[in-house]
Amino acid sequence: MRAAQLTALRRFEIREVPDPTIGNDHEVLVRIATVGVCGSDIHYYSEGRIGSQVIQFPFVIGHEASGVVEAIGAGVSRVRAGQRIAVDPARSCGHCDQCRAGRENTCRNLMFLGCPGQLSGALCDHLVLDERCCYPIEDGMTFEQATLSEPLAIALYTVERSRPAADANVAILGAGPIGMSVLHAVRTKIQGRIFVTDKIDERLKLAQALNPTWCGNPRYQDLATEIRHREPSLLDIVYECSGSEEAVVQAMGLLKPGGSLVLVGIPAVDTIPFPIHDMRRNEITVVSIRRQAYCTAKALDELQRKRINLDALVTHRFRLDQIREAFELVAGYRDGVMKAMISVD
Fold first, then answer.
1. Model-level pTM?
2. Is 144 domain-assigned?
3. Residues 279 and 320 in one domain
């Protein structure tokens, strides 16, 4: 089969590798149809690492995926051959202290697609997955929509963890695919004011289609002044979705006393300093988001019932043999890209 292997920083090679085979009764062979390019994939592409997770080349990345079941192990009951599925890229062990506490996303033995030292990624023709990672989709759902269930699951989990009140006033810093997914999710939960910021005007235009209270670009607007003008008491929750060190610090100045800073984006740096005295005097709560737990089925339900529609997020499409072009586009934030999709099948 073909696999798009990352062989060095910013270098892919399409290589023929052995076909994967089912190894136990609860595994499923999946023909991959579509893979989304995620910001974490870009970290691996551009920097070769995320924190302590360092790629040993060659390696296959990619974890936002959908496809078709081609074969199943003898004990599989969740899916059948020929069924179209969305992929949950995380495989938890189910028996460690974290799993027993309902925290499968911080499983001590977690294995994740396209993560160095864990599982090879989805940018290939076929994958073998645990059946628990396979979620059947309805006939009316496209592979792209199924693939978008992964970032939407993170957004739904983010909103669940932050527990906004119905009248909460919030901001979303960073209107990329995760930030936009959070915007969609938070709109289903609150009637308060929503502020959205990003440094890319094309992304703000997409956000404006969802009628937030205000959108702004920190490159040429003073966000604190603009938001304080519209909401003098400041905000209950700030969702930091860009991973920017500057935005994390900026978020502190947008929160009212007792507010919550929710860290969703993945920073490129290992350490970010906090204005600790402002943080403690105002009793700011910091909530860290680690992927998602038990939200894949919820995300698919939101999409299948059309309560949330993420179709507009897909701005660019590529074939597997165009993978470097796709990653260069996303890494450079070019051509108004929001979400690039790779068609593998």
1. 0.96
2. no
3. no
